[in-house]
Amino acid sequence: xxxxxxxxxxxxxxxxxxxxxxxxxxxxxxxxxxxxxxxxxxxxxxxxxxxxxxxxxxxxxxxxxxxxxxxxxxxxxxxxxxxxxxxxxxxxxxxxxxxxxxxxxxxxxxxxxxxxxxxxxxxxxxxxxxxxxxxxxxxxxxxxxxxxxxxxxxxxxxxxxxxxxxxxxxxxxxxxxxxxxxxxxxxxxxxxxxxxxxxxxxxxxxxxxxxxxxxxxxxxxxxxxxxxxxxxxxxxxxxxxxxxxxxxxxxxxxxxxxxxxxxxxxxxxxxxxxxxxxxxxxxxxxxxxxxxxxxxxxxxxxxxxxxxxxxxxxxxxxxxxxxxxxxxxxxxxxxxxxxxxxxxxxxxxxxxxxxxxxxxxxxxxxxxxxxxxxxxxxxxxxxxxxxxxxxxxxxxxxxxxxxxxxxxxxxxxxxxxxxxxxxxxxxxxxxxxxxxxxxxxxxxxxxxxxxxxxxxxxxxxxxxxxxxxxxxxxxxxxxxxxxxxxxxxxxxxxxxxxxxxxxxxxxxxxxxxxxxxxxxxxxxxxxxxxxxxxxxxxxxxxxxxxxxxxxxxxxxxxxxxxxxxxxxxxxxxxxxxxxxxxxxxxxxxxxxxxxxxxxxxxxxxxxxxxxxxxxxxxxxxxxxxxxxxxxxxxxxxxxxxxxxxxxxxxxxxxxxxxxxxxxxxxxxxxxxxxxxxxxxxxxxxxxxxxxxxxxxxxxxxxxxxxxxxxxxxxxxxxxxxxxxxxxxxxxxxxxxxxxxxxxxxxxxx
Length: 749
Hints:
Layout: E1 2-3, E2 18-19, E3 38-43, H1 47-56, E4 61-62, E5 65-72, H2 75-81, E6 88-94, H3 102-113, E7 120-125, H4 133-139, E8 144-147, H5 153-189, H6 195-211, E9 217-222, E10 234-239, H7 257-269, E11 273-274, E12 278-283, E13 291-296, H8 303-334, E14 335-336, E15 341-342, H9 344-357, E16 362-369, H10 372-379, H11 381-399, E17 404-409, E18 412-418, H12 424-429, E19 435-437, E20 440-442, E21 446-452, H13 460-477, E22 482-484, H14 487-508, E23 512-521, E24 527-537, E25 543-544, H15 546-556, H16 558-579, E26 586-591, H17 593-596, H18 601-612, E27 619-624, H19 625-628, H20 632-645, E28 648-654, H21 661-666, E29 671-674, H22 676-680, H23 689-700, E30 704-707, H24 713-722, E31 726-727, H25 738-747
Parallel strand pairs: 3-5, 3-6, 6-7, 7-8, 21-22, 24-26, 26-27, 27-28, 28-29, 29-30, 30-31
Antiparallel strand pairs: 1-2, 4-5, 9-10, 9-13, 11-12, 12-13, 14-15, 16-18, 16-21, 17-18, 19-20, 23-24, 23-31, 24-25
Helix pairs in contact: 5-8, 6-8, 9-13, 10-11, 14-15, 15-16, 16-18, 18-20
């Protein structure tokens, strides 16, 4: 039998399409394999070619799958239809259609624009002259080239089978590669953030994506019995598509017997089940909570997909093993184990949630148990734990579910809830009655810091920080009180933070400098010493008072580097004055408590003296009275090392602290320095009583006395008459830069 078409009659008369070289009738070997058909696109402007090709391949199966034909009749129609298609296995493409190169132009469109690299293209032509075979195969990405005259049915089938086999192999390799990559990504995507139900829903999604089917399935878990004796019940914990209404149902309540039996089969036998229209997969880790996933299938799975699913199920078994561990870790990460309350991280998350939802009139309150650390030291940590548990129970019972209760730190509770429930006085009343601890009653008070959530709040962490600022204010002013955070507090904190940043930059950019204030002997007016004073001029020329930036330097730790720089600079300047033979007896340098506690402090002093060449006797370290009382053993050791080095010690701002006289008697100090506040009292009605006492104390302890803040002749005369040996102040000489100081020294002759 011959299949002949008379297309393009004006241009060709011998355009035989098919010549049947097989007298046997094509057998009817099509069968219901359940696999999707191969998509074959026929692109030709001759209807007879379409009909003849379809007739020649009717009821044909290749690799156990039927064929599905797609027909287009022109280049334009093909360009319009093909972008909406997928999984086209083979294209039988005519070369000459609207134009003599229309087919070749479609090859470029298919490969370059559609990027169908797997699809096999068989070029067919009745006019080889328009596209010579060698040129076409060399210049275009085609897989076979046939003239229509040589395409008998058997040869067409042979070419098509070879093309489909090639396409299938390419797709199998690619599917394996993509599937394994997807398995890796799928396993990584299970973060378990929301527990077993979120995990189960993710399994449905990932299986559907892996097999290329819609997520019309449900996932089930083996539930645990309440008492550990009765038979466990299987429940649906995630569902999708048409099975959404089965969520949380018992498997035995599922009306569809196919689904019910498949799930029971898999969960009891612990093995997967593949059927013609569905599959049920089994996942199990080392624990006793297996999962089964039922998925509807519009077609039977290929072998490669089954292998991929086996790998996927194995991976998910490991993930399932980790789920319980992750849940435990999350519980530890977001929950306080002693009080079974949410912790700081969870509290911040809850504030973020409330801010996002825009819940009106919400307040964050922090409750700090007063003197809790001291109570722990005296009564023991077990007693402290019991007290915290008692407080947590009362707060939870009295405030109710509308208030979110958390443990922020050791003895600080966090509250988040409506403003009307978190009034300061009502919170303090919760502590009015004693707390029962074993057989005793314990009364405590709390300090409270509060902040109202406001529109435009940046987040939970910032809200908690604002409440902490208010709490610190309460504890620093009066324990047992409360403070409500205001914008002004925030402004002050931000200004301090900004100032601290600028201080670091100023130090790095050498914007800090030293000035020197002279000290004289009051009885003779002799120039006896200098005090090195640090100053900071900002970029805009304004002077920042030391009382503002020195505490920040101490708080941030910058004072260590800053103090070392002051020490070296002052020593080098003093050494320079001695070379010019205009130096006083000593150079005074202030030392903070933070510096003094550094292990290498004495070594820092020694190196500054060695590098500058200054004799130790020319250096006097001024240490505040509060430093002398902070850790006597350490202080005495450091002082002994410094005295052995040869430097002198002055107790600065004397009289402002509460030094023990017996302790002062033991200190290897050389000088007491009267604070300017007591010198100013000379002008007051009360008179200089404290200044006189300090002068007399210095005489009794055999210590020299120097007064600071002398700003008038009256101050000078009175202190000299009272027996104060030395003094400094604006009346004698203001703090000066090096050049100005040199002029001051020269002016004294």
